[in-house]
Specification:
- This protein is mainly beta.
- It has 3 helices and 17 strands.
- Strands 3, 4, 5, 7, 8, 11, 14, 15, 16 and 17 form a 10-stranded mixed beta sheet that branches. A 4-stranded antiparallel beta sheet has the order 10-9-12-13, with no helix packed on it. Strands 1-2-6 form a 3-stranded antiparallel beta sheet, with no helix packed on it.
- It is globular.
- The N and C termini lie far apart (about 45 Å).
């Protein structure tokens, strides 16, 4: 492919993204608006209901639970901050959280849904704010199974990561996306992750639901349901003492 053709395709893609993925902005913060799913795939409210029971009704960008989920509200986390990237501390929640950069905790990650042709996995970058060194935590084979517990300590920042791999021999490219949109380098920044803080879903835990879009946004349906995971987190008790050491560790326990 020539550089000229690549540049033309990049321009077309950027224009397409700008028109097809509308943002809702207020006071410098913005949301990506997922599209309704296609065919028989489930939307965010239905996936939340499958996970927590009852039903979820849209309230702006949030979802309010009823029935078995009474008392649970899925609070949408901002996708962008036009001023700076705020860090989401994984065991707390603030109204100004942005879901691109995260910080420590003891985590249980459970895979709940996959609506995609590609094989899916969810992981992290091992620490720091760069999109590299992908380390898988769960994949599609974990759906329906027990959650896996991980420990990320020391108050340092990290990114969530996602990989999608086609099963077809003629499509061997591996798609890799990060929670920080500026690290998704297909002709510029793309946001591939929608996050909800599940208020009322955990006793002594912070609970998050993360919804992934696995294709570059020019080609995708933009319904953000290709892979869905839950993150349950508690504070790491040794975090404060380790901050000065600059130590970041990950331990996987099954």
């Amino acid at each position: 492919m020539s550089y000229r053709r690549a540049g033309i395709e990049a321009l077309i893609c950027l224009l397409f993204i700008a028109g097809a993925v509308p943002l809702y902005a207020t006071f410098g913060y913005s949301y990506v608006n997922p599209n309704p799913p296609i065919q028989t795939e489930k939307n965010h409210a239905e996936i939340l209901a499958d996970t927590y029971g009852g039903a979820f009704t849209a309230d702006g960008h949030n979802f309010v639970g009823s029935g078995a989920s009474t008392g649970i509200t899925a609070i949408r986390v901002y996708d962008f901050d036009s001023i700076t990237y705020n860090t989401t501390h994984i065991y707390t929640h603030e109204e100004t959280d942005v879901d691109q950069i995260w910080s420590d905790g003891v985590l249980t990650i459970t895979a709940y849904a996959r609506y995609a042709a590609y094989n899916q996995s969810f992981g992290w970058n091992g620490g720091g704010t760069g999109g590299q060194n992908y380390q898988e935590l769960v994949n599609q084979s974990d759906i329906g199974g027990p959650g896996h517990t991980f420990e990320i300590t020391a108050g340092q920042e990290f990114l969530w990561g996602h990989q999608a791999q086609s099963r077809d021999w003629w499509e061997s490219d591996k798609k890799e996306w990060w929670s920080r949109d500026s690290e998704n380098s297909w002709w510029g920044s793309e946001d591939h992750m929608v996050t909800y803080y599940m208020q009322g879903a955990g006793a002594g835990e912070a609970v998050w639901m993360i919804f992934i879009e696995d294709e570059k946004l020019c080609d995708s349906d933009k319904d953000y349901n290709d892979f869905v995971v839950e993150v349950r987190a508690v504070p790491e008790p040794t975090t404060i003492g380790l901050i000065g050491l600059g130590f970041l560790a990950l331990r996987r326990r099954r």
